[in-house]
Amino acid sequence: MVSVGFLGLLVAWAVPVLVLAGEMDKTVLEGATWQLTRITLADSQVHSVPSGVEATATFANGSVSGSGGCNRYTASYTVDAGKLTIGMAASTMMACPEPQMMVEQPLMAALAATTAYRIEDGQLALLDTQGHEIATFKVQPLVALKGVTWRATVYNNGRSAAVSLIDGSEITATFGTDGVLSGSAGCNHYRAAYVIEGSSITIQAPAATRKICSDPKGVMQQESEYLKALTTTATYAIQGQQLELRTAEDALVALFQASGG
């Protein structure tokens, strides 16, 4: 987890005066999903977002929402001639392993500290009261659910909630246009029927091959937990290159990254 001292670094440091966004950029701001690429701290260190972690922001109709890297969040915002104020964010309360949480907490602090923004060369910079960049985003391309190979980064093991995959293992999911979900559960290949209605999704109990794997250690237990978790899926959401499956109680089932994303 990120310490209070770490978050406390999100204060001002001197840079030249910046040219702020105008009304044309307001349209751009609200017309895309933005993916966090780096957080700039008061000690001048730039923290890039680790590979496989997606934190996003979508501005629309006075509400900004997205993924903090682990939890879903939403907050109100007002924008006027380059000035941007973001209200206190409400979010889900899931605990995720590092590095997701190391991204999420500084991002929430940066959103709260934002007073202006700038869009330049396809990048969105959130600025504090002195015009310093505290978070930088890029435009995130849209990805469809079906026909994409999704690679799991986090899944619900039924005990400790969301956990990262065992090092050296890989779990994939491909939602076919024929209503069949297939992929690798880490050792065995699996298939399951699925039905989508709006953002709701139902996944039937998967059928899998019966190979036994011993490497990496624990992969068979991970596989069993993942396949069991799939059957609890009730909703899905795609933010750019990231797919999120959740239960009817809004608990995380799994997070996936689009292959090559």
Automatic annotation (TrEMBL):
Domain DUF306: 29-138, 165-255
Alphabetical list of InterPro entries matching this protein: DUF306_Meta_HslJ, HslJ-like_sf, Hsp_HslJ-like
Transmembrane segments annotated in the record for this chain: none
Classification via PANTHER family: DUF306 DOMAIN-CONTAINING PROTEIN, HEAT SHOCK PROTEIN HSLJ
Protein name in the entry: DUF306 domain-containing protein
Organism: Candidatus Contendobacter odensis Run_B_J11
